[in-house]
Amino acid sequence: xxxxxxxxxxxxxxxxxxxxxxxxxxxxxxxxxxxxxxxxxxxxxxxxxxxxxxxxxxxxxxxxxxxxxxxxxxxxxxxxxxxxxxxxxxxxxxxxxxxxxxxxxxxxxxxxxxxxxxxxxxxxxxxxxxxxxxxxxxxxxxxxxxxxxxxxxxxxxxxxxxxxxxxxxxxxxxxxxxxxxxxxxxxxxxxxxxxxxxxxxxxxxxxxxxxxxxxxxxxxxxxxxxxxxxxxxxxxxxxxxxxxxxxxxxxxxxxxxxxxxxxxxxxxxxxxxxxxxxxxxxxxxxxxxxxxxxxxxxxxxxxxxxxxxxxxxxxxxxxxxxxxxxxxxxxxxxxxxxxxxxxxxxxxxxxxxxxxxxxxxxxxxxxxxxxxxxxxxxxxxxxxxxxxxxxxxxxxxxxxxxxxxxxxxxxxxxxxxxxxxxx
Length: 423
What we know:
423 residues, mainly alpha, Amino acid/polyamine transporter I, 17 helices
């Protein structure tokens, strides 16, 4: 079996994690989360809750990735630690949720860069980024590095605009109605979508050098950096727009520039948003293809998708299959509700991550270096945030996971029925 090549170090892994996270939360999730939180303090609290749960998940992911340094992330961990069904459920939830998320990100690129031809731009983006990923993981890392740098420059411009002529009012940060603890948890569940990108680092476990050290360092570094950026932007947006206007905004960071009476920045921010989401989509496509590769290797998806290109050492068939499905979803219609759906399935995915990490307690060094309370907290946090998401997201996510589970059970039953004949 041809394997992937270990080319990535700590800086590359951090950049890929930043590229996967930066953009979605800032340009897509902040406004609906503000609407659910109901106030400035509620939104900031939701960000902290989402970041804390993500930290717990990152800790569990790092432990497991060091133990199983191969592509697939929690799909592999669940199979190895909890059994085939848990692994399948994690992989199925990740593939379905992230495929919808890829389509939503592609449409977001189109909406920002060319609103009148959003679908066309989305199709071109998916094709171009698939070509980049087919060129090899090192090329993906280099491209992501450029996109992250440009994104940071644009976000810094937004912050500068917000604290400049707009004269932000810090009283607005504390303003707004009260949605209560439930609203804050719902907002946190939506905001978790913005932190889930660190999984890209773990799913690239077969392509990083010294995975035990690289993944353990890269995940928390990328996560801490993104949390700091999100909190800064949330405070600036609340101070300039106030919670009510932020909640109703379609493009909140562009509205910050308008409030600052700097109309020339509006299109700069639109282009910056397109660049940022392009970075998210690039990393999402790469991580998703590697999970498909891992599932195909174990026959949970068609085995033909388990091939690795002999020269470029990338899962080329999985990359192409993912691109085709995303293009179909992009063409079907509006996927704005994909954020809640994706958050639900990814929270279930990380619940399985934490449950898998709990089984490491008796392994050498596990309990000393990584307190089991972190995995317990992460598991409880994932289940709580998933349960408090909007009802439509919970119903849709649970239905898709149940359909996958039924398919798994049917296949297991048919395999058992055929076994005596083979003997």
